[in-house]
Amino acid sequence: MQIEHVAGLRQSSNPDLILVNSPLRDYDKRPKDDYEVLPPLGLAYIASKSARRGHNVGLVDAEHHGIGQSTIANIVNALNPRFAGINVLTPARPQALSFAKNLDQNIPLIIGGSHATSLTEKTLREFALVHEKVILIRSEAELAVTAILDGQDVHSIPGAFWLNKGNMEFTPGLSVPNNLDELPILNRKFLDNDPSIDYRTGMHESRVLTSRGCPFDCTFCAGARSSLSLDVRNRGVESVASEIKGLLVDSGIQSVRFMDDLFMSSEKRTRSILEALRKTGVSNLYWDATGRASILAKFNSSFFDYLKENGANEFAMGIESGSERLRKRINKQVSMAEIEKSLVELTKRGIKVKGYFIIGLPTETKEETQSTIDLARNLTQKYPGFFNGSIFIFRPYPGTQEWKYLINEGYNEEELLSMRAEGIGELARSAVLTSQKFSEYSPDKLSSLLMQYDEWKKNFFI
Ligand code: B12
């Protein structure tokens, strides 16, 4: 049994909960390609909160270790915890279902995550078909899962859903933490790959969340304001600084990646985090973060200098499309002028930019697909070594405005869900392919354009 893959579990007492980060692909069939994934911070937060209450929790990162779903079920069955839990993301849904089927029917299964939150009833019912005891928790679940482990009746836990004689019942509301500082600092004993060496920079890196939620409302994103209906919540800057200081002292990290939906939300917030780090005695720390061209473009040049002086290394930002019409359609609210301005300011100071693009958006014409690929190429050539464009093929996620649009257009829900998390080699890192056609180009054509682009990009990045 691969017990070494169960992070954080104490051997001295029986397990209360084993959490599983669902594998994106079926690794029982084909071993995982050689690529790195980032750690499942949400699951580790659930584990940290429950462990703080004294529960014995373990986390199996099946995606990181490339463990197939039947093997994970064997691991969990052998440990025989009081509860098992698995996250359901849309591309990982088949693997999560198959795990549920292979899980010992006497072990109650808690499910949650983005897909379960958006398609609650359907998800609950399909898991209940393969497992006898299923509880679904909508949205952020640290408080709800801890309450279940504490022995609280699920009928009293807001956001809990279950089936009673075939009827769905639930407790109204959500158990979402309003004050993030009431959650414990993330306990990294639950993460096998954090800190870890960042394959791009060779630095010893940790990933940190300083906020939750996004104020913007992009039509393709399940984390968008209207999809999640949650307010943006910020952690206190002292808590962030003390987490990072702890990582420096205990693990000797050299860099931090801020994984918030939107880290660079304002000059004030960013400054206050960097000042708190300075006051805590953190220096010589490199950091990467999520940003937005419309916000970055409004910063003045001295603030860009300040960012560079204080360790800014790389910003990830969604550019999404080369077509003005499509950027408007997806409600991106970012102009070409803002993209250009932020790229110039960042790259001339040596701050790198990771640009994200989507091709195959609903209503996208062939010319628009081409304009997106051209834009990614042009920016890569214009800022060589400093701009790295990653292109993804559009995939609709439940709960998003694009999902609703496609359902209204007559697309079949089952077919929309049956997208394949395939792709080999380089594409295995990111590709979730679709057999559905939403744009003028066919899915196969989009895949081949993407492969050509990735091949071309090797001239600039290894
Ligand atoms: C950071 C991020 C990543 C990171 C890190 C992912 C990770 N391993 O945690 C990276 C870049 C690696 C990533 C990859 C992917 N991501 Co992502 N990611 C995000 C992002 C921006 C923030 C996630 C986050 O950390 N939130 C903060 C933490 C605290 O919340 P959380 O992770 O959601 O966890 C909470 C709840 O969901 C819930 N919960 C989670 N798991 C479980 C399990 C149980 C049992 C329970 C009860 C509850 C529960 O409780 C948690 C604690 O409060 C979200 C957008 C968003 N706002 O949701 C997209 C998002 C979650 N990602 C998404 C997707 C699709 C992916 C990929 C599948 C993309 C791909 N390659 O095809 C991969 C999957 C990789 C994997 N299996 O780990 C989608 C999910 C949509 C869907 N319906 O499936 C989102 C919503 C973005 C979008 N496109 O709309 N992602």
From TrEMBL:
<protein>
    <submittedName>
        <fullName>Radical SAM family protein</fullName>
    </submittedName>
</protein>
<keyword id="KW-0808">Transferase</keyword>
<dbReference type="InterPro" id="IPR007197">
    <property type="entry name" value="rSAM"/>
</dbReference>
<feature type="domain" description="Radical SAM core">
    <location>
        <begin position="200"/>
        <end position="434"/>
    </location>
</feature>
<dbReference type="InterPro" id="IPR023404">
    <property type="entry name" value="rSAM_horseshoe"/>
</dbReference>
<feature type="domain" description="B12-binding">
    <location>
        <begin position="23"/>
        <end position="159"/>
    </location>
</feature>
<keyword id="KW-0411">Iron-sulfur</keyword>
<dbReference type="GO" id="GO:0003824">
    <property type="term" value="F:catalytic activity"/>
</dbReference>
<dbReference type="Pfam" id="PF04055">
    <property type="entry name" value="Radical_SAM"/>
</dbReference>
<dbReference type="InterPro" id="IPR006638">
    <property type="entry name" value="Elp3/MiaA/NifB-like_rSAM"/>
</dbReference>
<dbReference type="InterPro" id="IPR006158">
    <property type="entry name" value="Cobalamin-bd"/>
</dbReference>
<dbReference type="GO" id="GO:0051539">
    <property type="term" value="F:4 iron, 4 sulfur cluster binding"/>
</dbReference>
<dbReference type="GO" id="GO:0046872">
    <property type="term" value="F:metal ion binding"/>
</dbReference>
<keyword id="KW-0479">Metal-binding</keyword>
<keyword id="KW-0949">S-adenosyl-L-methionine</keyword>
<keyword id="KW-0408">Iron</keyword>
<dbReference type="Pfam" id="PF02310">
    <property type="entry name" value="B12-binding"/>
</dbReference>
<dbReference type="InterPro" id="IPR051198">
    <property type="entry name" value="BchE-like"/>
</dbReference>
<dbReference type="InterPro" id="IPR034466">
    <property type="entry name" value="Methyltransferase_Class_B"/>
</dbReference>
<keyword id="KW-0489">Methyltransferase</keyword>
<dbReference type="InterPro" id="IPR058240">
    <property type="entry name" value="rSAM_sf"/>
</dbReference>
<dbReference type="GO" id="GO:0031419">
    <property type="term" value="F:cobalamin binding"/>
</dbReference>
